[in-house]
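DM from R.C. (forwarded with permission)

"hey, sorry to bug you on a friday — could you get me a structure for this? deadline for the figure draft is monday and I only need the backbone to look sensible"
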Amino acid sequence: MKEQNIYILGIESSCDDTAASVIHNGKILSNVVATQKIHEEFGGVVPELASRAHQQNIVPVVHQALKKANITKEQLHAVAFTRGPGLMGSLLVGTSFAKSLAYGLNIPLIDVNHMQAHILAHFIDEEGFDKPPFPFLAMTISGGHTQIVRVDSYFDMTVIGETIDDAVGEAFDKSGKILGLGYPAGPEIDKRAKLGNPKAFKFTKPKVDGLNFSFSGFKTAVLYFIQREVKANPNFIEENLNDICASIQYTIIGILIDKLKLATKETGISHIAIGGGVSANSGIRQALKDGEQKFGWTTYVPKFEFTTDNAAMIAIVGYLKFLEEDFAEQDVVASARLKI
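My reply, with the result:
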């Protein structure tokens, strides 16, 4: 495609955030997210409630994205949407809307893999943020996913390590639930960890061969530890909360960094990019920066708003696929377990 004036609408609805974004030649013009607060009282995302909220939010969110970008829908060159992975009901709302809009406007439809989008968010044109050179290693960490991916080009990606049970975000949230913190617990643990001693309490790291991860045993260890200590001192959590959070975060970060060290050793690749909601964690960001000094890494951390689920990352993939004329047919279907 030689055209240099390309507008792509990106739509993201894989979980509990309804998002829309407009990208113009690689630069984000708008990035609108409607967050669903209703799940907080349940301590996790309720799929049925999520899909209903998407139905209510998607039209106003898309309208707002176009308005903020100062364009009309008739100026769009294509509609990109999250095909998967994610919650099926949520994905269906975004997929159906994107297909209808593209059909109505008679413009191309572009399906996007949510996990690829987290990685390719690094290629949004954003002042002050460098783009990783190929090949690089991407660590995608979120509430539903933990992966290390070798990235040789925009669409040549190989998963070289992933969790065999729970994701890192779940480890944060379930640990927080045990401590009586609200949902999502990750940001609260991060905040309290800054005030605590990371070596106050020792949690063992799960032993998993190769580059794969496991967090289910870690969650169980935290549960048993808290139960034991509270039995001896009913005020244990209250008196030690900052230290407990710091120790939990320190252990989780140690698990991630150990696997990255092994991945760089095995692949010989020292460029490391992170993505996904958990990459907003300040401790993980600092550990990566420290890795530049300790291990000779060059690390890439996206702008904060592009780390959690957002439509800007869907839009950039849409733009890159548009340049290659890689379009979807109208019979494309959502997939809850889509692989990279």
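R.C.: lifesaver. The beta strands are 7-12, 17-24, 27-35, 78-84, 109-113, 136-141, 146-153, 156-162, 271-275, 298-300.
me: no worries. The chain has a mean pLDDT of 93.
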